[in-house]
Amino acid sequence: MSSLPATGSTLSSGRRWTRFSSAQRAARFLIWFVIVAAVVAAGRSVEVIPEFIADAPEQMADLFKRMWPPALAYYPGGIHAALVETLHIASLGTILSVLLALPFGLLVASNLTRNRLLNQFARLVLVSSRSVNSLVWALLFVGIFGPGALAGTLAIAFRSIGFVGKLLGEAIEQAQRGPIEALQAAGASTGAQIVYGYWPQVKPAFWSIVLLRWDINVRESAVLGLVGAGGIGMVMDSAQNLFQWDRVAMVLLAIFAVVVIAEVVITQIRKRVL
Fold first, then answer.
1. Which of 3, 42, 117, 146 is the least crowded, having the fewest Cβ atoms under 10 Å away?
2. 229 lies in some domain
3. Alpha carbons 10 and 254: distance in angstroms, whole number
4. Contact 136, 177 (CB under 8 A)
């Protein structure tokens, strides 16, 4: 069996075989040049101080020494209520985001909504929601409603609209046309097509999206308190400002425990429901 000629070898016809053409080699060189230039520019703009890097292990060891042992006695009176509030923020924010995202998920699906203007409007809303970080949403709502759980709940909701709506719209677009065409031939209305044609097909994906988003929101809501949006983040921020590192360690342990428990709960729900 004959093998392909090696890079740069001469073919029997007299032509020289190369793996890449001149244009391809120039494009590859340009791509690598842009990557290296971007890394160099980023490294220069970050202004890394070598003395801080050299001192980092010692500072980290000192910080861990101050955080140990965690203030376990601080949990009942100072952490538990804020932790429950964090879960409430994540749960209510997720529910509100689903209610707000459903119409946009239906509008963004091109096979369901044929109006291109409505498609683009829904896409704009979903992109706008995803492009703004939850902390920025929290800062906005803290400025409007003041510090507290309401600002955190709205921040979680508005951040999640884009995530839920985009994935729901993609699930609708991937639905099989057979059941939909059968309903249309029977004279079913658009609402009936959604309920009896699309919903049975997208239901597993829908619940997967909701559960995944709630899992993400539990993590995000834990830090919203750093900007005054309620939850356990406010407790951690206060402890950091007062240099109470043993309490900071207890807050971090509580957040870690909640995240692990939420992951286990989500996994069990997916196994039993989906």
1. 3
2. yes
3. 68
4. no
| Cα dihedral across residues 121, 123, 129, 132: positive or negative | negative
Per-residue pLDDT reduced to its tens digit, 139-152: 889 888 888 889 88
Number of domains in the chain: 1
Q: Among 226, 97, 221, 112, which residue's Cα sits nearest to residue 163?
A: 97
Do residues 172 and 105 make contact, with C-beta atoms less than 8 angstroms apart?
Answer: yes
Q: Report cis status (omega within 30 of 0) of the bond before 69.
A: yes
Residue 16: DSSP 8-state: B
pTM of the predicted model, to two decimals?
0.76
Is the Cα torsion angle 14, 19, 24, 28 positive or negative in sign?
negative
Q: Which residues span the domain enclosing 82?
A: 73-273
Beta-bridge partners for 10: 16
Residue 30 has which token pair?
């340009």
The CB density around residue 203, as the number of other CB atoms within 10 Å, is: 12
Residue 8 lies in a domain: no
Residues 226-250 have pLDDT tens digits of: 888 878 888 888 888 888 888 888 8
Taking the C-alpha atoms of residue 195 and residue 32, their distance in angstroms, rounded to an integer, is 51
Q: Please say whether the beta carbons of 227 and 50 come within 8 A.
A: no
Q: Which CATH number goes with the domain that contains 221? A: 1.10.3720.10
